[in-house]
Amino acid sequence: MQRGIKLISALLIIVSFTFISYSSTAQNSIRQIVAYDDFDGGSGDFGIAGGSGWTNKVWNFNGQIYYSGDLSHQGPGKASILVLGPDASIDRCTMLKGFTGANLTFWYAAFGMDEGDQFEVQIDDDGINKGDGFKTAAVFSEGAPEGDPWRFANIDISSFDMSDELVIKIVNTVDNGNWIANFVDEVKIEADVYDPYVKVLEAENAELTGCETFVDPNAHGGKAVMNFGTNVGDNIVFTVPYHGTRLVLRYTGAFSGTVSIYKKRGDNWINKGDIKIFESSKANKDPGGQWTRYYEQSVHNILILPGDKIKLQIDEEDVEAVNIDAIQVLPFPISVKSKFTPRFGKVLNVIGQTKEHMPAHQQNLQTCPGGSSTFTNIADLAQGENKLDGLYEESQSSGVYDFGTKHGIYWIEEWTRSAQVIGLYLVDEVSDNDVEPLKKIASGQWDHYLDELGEYILLADRPVYLKIGYEFDGKWKVTWNAYDPDDYIAAFRYIVNYYRAKSIPVASVWQYAAYDWGQSAGNNPFTRWYPGTEYVDWFAVSYFHAAMNTHEPFLRFARQERKPVMIAEATPQGYDLTNLTWAHPYTTTTPDPESVTSQQIWDQWYSQYFEYIKVNFDIVKCATIIADNWSDFSAWNPENGNGYWGDARIYNNPDISTWWQNEMSKYYYQHGTSNFKRTFKGWNK
Fold it and tell me: What is the pTM of this model?
C-alpha cells in the first residue's frame, strides 16, 4: 500500500460454476495416467493426459538399444525396448505440473545378471538432487526365471517434485564386467492430478435433456454418473470458469457412435471435435444395476477462455447410452520455475502487515503463515536514519504512511518457518526531486544503502521476495510514486545486478497497482516500466476489488513471460468484519455504513478472491492478505481522502474464521515450513 489517494472502482466478474467440485480423500484431484510409452514402433505416446505431460524430448539411448517384437509384454506385433550392455541406459525428461501421489510402473525382463549386477531406476527432479546426480529409486537383480520372464515394477515417486523437470533413467550397472540385457515395456506414470475444476456430473447442476443419474462404484467416491444419449440431440451444456487448453472426459459407452464437442461463438455452436465410442468399449448394466466396464478417458485439444460454454451432444442415431463420470478442463499449460517458487505447484500463503494484528491472526487461526509481509524505505536513509526503516526497529512509516508498526526482524525471530516479502519504497517524501533515489541507486551512489538491505536479507536466512519500487504505475508525484519509466527500469536492474554479483539470495518482484481507471502515471502502459525478463523473477498485483478488467492484460503478459504471479496486497476494502458493516470504498467523509452478514462479506469479497486464485492457478503462486483493522490508523480514515477501508481482522469474525481455515486447509496452499530447501525452488542453503 502506497502513500496518497487510492480510489478504486470495481468490475466484478462473477463466474458461475455449473457443476460441483469433486471432493474425496484426494481433494480436487483425479487419478489418471500422466505419462505412458509402450515402445510400439519406436514412437512413444507420452503425455496422453494430465498437466503439461511429457516434453517433446525423445528417449535418449546409451548402449546398444533396439526394439523387439519377440519379448514384448503386449504380445505379437508390439515392441519392447532392450537395454543391452554394461552401463547402458535409457532416460527421459518431463514437465509434470500439479501432481501428487505419483507412481512409476513398468514391465521388465532381466537376463545375464550375476551377483552384484543391478538393474536400476534413477530419478532426478532438477531440484532436490540437482548437481548431486540421480537418486536410485529401485534396484532389480533377479535373473530371468523359467517360463514367463516378465516382472512388474511399481515405484513410489511421490517424494519427488512433480512441478519441475523430472529425469527418469533406467540403467544397467555391472560390477563384474559381464554383459547384461534388460527388456522394458509399458513405462507409465499415474498420479492424482490436481485440478480445482474437476466436475462430477449430477443432474441438478447442468442444462440437460434426455438424461438420468445413477450411482456407479467406479465413479469418483461412488458419486452420481450422468447417463445421456437415448436420442439424437441429447446434450450437456456447461460453463468453463478459466483458461484451458484441453477438455478431458471420463466415460463409459454402450454403443458405437459419436459424441460431438461444441463451443459457443456468439449465437452459434461450433464443432470442436468428436469422441468416438466403439463396440470394444461397450458397457452394460449387470442384473444388480452396476456397470461392467471401467471408465475410459478422452482428451481433446481446445482453447477455452473464462465464460465459454461447452456442449456435449449426441450426433448419431440408434444410440443407447453414454455415461460420463467427470469433465475436466486442463489449465493453460504454463510452466513457471522462477526463483523461490513454491514446489509442487502450491500457493504461498502470506499474511501482512502490522505488529499490532499479525500475531493475533496466527494465534487465533492456528496456522503458521507461509510468509510475512513488511516494508522498508531506502530513501529515508538519505535523511539520516541509521538502519533500514521498519526492518531492524519498529517503525510507523517505511513507505506505508501511518499504517501500524512494521518490524521485519521481529517476524524473522518469531516466525522461523516463514518466508518474507519486503516492499522496498523508493519515493522521497521530503521534496519533489531533490534526492531522486532512482538516479542515485542506478548511478551507484547508494550502494552502501543496498548493502544495509543485503545484510538483512542474509540475516533472514530464508527466501526473501523484494518488491522493488512496488506499485510502479502510481500516478501522483510525489506522494504516490510517479516513477519515470527509464529511471525506474535503470534502478530496478541495478539492484538486481548488484545483489546477484554479491550472491544475495533474493527474488525480485515487479508489482503493478492494477487499478481500473485504465491509466497510470503519464498514461503509460504497464509494459513501459518493465525491466526485462532476465531481471524480474516475479510479477505481482494489488487486489482490493476483483478488477479483472485491468488484471487480465497483466496476467496475459505474465503467462507470455512465463513468470509466477504474487498477489502482493489484498484486503476486503469497505467491509468491517467486526461490526458487520459495509461502506463504499470511495467514501471520503464519515461513512454511513450498511449492515451486512458474514455470509455476504464472504460471498462478495473472499469467494471472489479465492476464485481469482483458482482461475489463475497456473501462474498465481503467492497470495498476501492484509488482515488488519485499517480504522486504527488515521491516514486510512476516509476523512483524509484515502477512501473507506474498514476492519479486515479475520479472527474477529467466527464465521469467516471458520471459512478461512477451511480454505487454507486445502493442500495446494503452502504454509510455514523449516525445510526451505525442500519447499522453494532455488533455495539451496
Answer: 0.66
